[in-house]
């Protein structure tokens, strides 16, 4: 908890943020992250709520990647592809946590050492994630990783947010702005095609503030795509 009352609950299992209580316009505290009621519930059904995804977040086609001319095979846990580090990615590992106060701000730093060959990735990789609740009432996440061999590392925080509180209904009235001119199209298995497409004239154009629900209907579900964003 910081000096302004911003309050976070986090576990060393996957560095999962289980709750984040923030003040609304009237100062009423609201929990804005989705979570599960128990550790066992996270173990049984991940959906990657609130965790650090890794060693490599997102999908790797057929789990195969090449480094310095050598091909590696990662664990395929998403159909034919590898997702968020494989069957037991960083979200399903116990990290070592250390809490402290830095410059008046409460922080917690988590460390995990991923063994050489874990889930098919080369190199012993040491990952660190630091969460800070600062004086501006911001949650700041810092991530770093080092490896003793060339490897594939792509860490990502994976909370699901509802700024009205997780029991308040859908997020279609939430307004978002993304300062980007292009996006990365994906194929039917959600693997990026390599193309960089312009957002102009598409539902993906959030260069100006726009409600999530404004254009989501223009992205209907198909047999290969759940639809939406």
Describe the structure using short key phrases.
three-stranded antiparallel sheet; 229 residues; four-stranded antiparallel sheet
What does the secondary structure layout of this molecule look like, with pairings?
Blueprint: E1 7-10, E2 17-23, E3 29-31, H1 39-44, E4 52-53, E5 59-60, E6 64-67, E7 70-73, E8 82-83, E9 96-102, E10 105-114, E11 125-133, E12 139-147, E13 156-157, E14 175-176, E15 182-183, E16 197-198, E17 210-211
Antiparallel strand pairs: 1-2, 2-3, 4-13, 5-8, 6-7, 9-10, 10-11, 11-12, 14-17, 15-16
Structural summary, described in words:
With 229 residues, the protein is mostly beta strands. It is 3% helix and 32% strand. It is built from one helix and 17 strands. A four-stranded antiparallel beta sheet has the order 9-10-11-12, with no helix packed on it. A hairpin with a 6-residue loop joins strand 1 and strand 2. The longest helix is centred in the first third of the chain and has 6 residues.
Strand order of the largest sheet: 9-10-11-12
Terminal Cα separation, in Å?
Answer: 33 Å
Biggest sheet record: 4 strands, antiparallel
Mean pLDDT rating? 95
Q: Strand fraction band?
A: 25-35%
> Considering DSSP H and I runs of 4 or more, what fraction of the residues is helical?
under 10%
Low-pLDDT parts are none
Count of DSSP-assigned helices = 1
SSE ordering: EEEHEEEEEEEEEEEEEE
What gross morphology would you assign?
A: globular
Q: In total, how many beta strands?
A: 17
Which structural class best describes the helix and strand composition? Answer: mainly beta
């Amino acid at each position: 908890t910081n000096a302004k009352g911003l309050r976070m609950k986090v576990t060393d299992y996957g560095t999962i943020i289980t709750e984040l209580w923030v003040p609304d316009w009237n100062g009423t505290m609201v929990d804005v992250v989705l979570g599960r009621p128990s550790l066992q519930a996270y173990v049984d059904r991940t959906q990657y709520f609130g965790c650090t995804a890794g060693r490599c977040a997102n999908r790797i086609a057929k789990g195969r990647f090449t480094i310095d001319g050598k091909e590696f095979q990662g664990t395929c846990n998403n159909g034919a592809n590898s997702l968020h580090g494989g069957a037991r990615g960083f979200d399903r590992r116990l990290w070592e946590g250390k809490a402290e106060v830095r410059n008046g701000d409460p922080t917690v730093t988590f460390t995990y050492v991923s063994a050489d060959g874990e889930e098919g990735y080369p190199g012993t990789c040491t990952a660190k994630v630091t969460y800070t609740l600062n004086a501006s009432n911001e949650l700041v996440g810092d991530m770093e990783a080092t490896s003793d061999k060339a490897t594939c590392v792509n860490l990502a925080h994976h909370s699901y947010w509802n700024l009205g509180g997780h029991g308040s209904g859908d997020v279609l009235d939430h307004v978002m702005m993304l300062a980007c001119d292009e996006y990365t199209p994906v194929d039917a298995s959600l693997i990026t095609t390599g193309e960089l497409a312009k957002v102009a004239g598409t539902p993906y154009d959030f260069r100006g503030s726009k409600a999530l629900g404004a254009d989501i209907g223009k992205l209907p579900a198909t047999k290969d795509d759940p639809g939406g964003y």
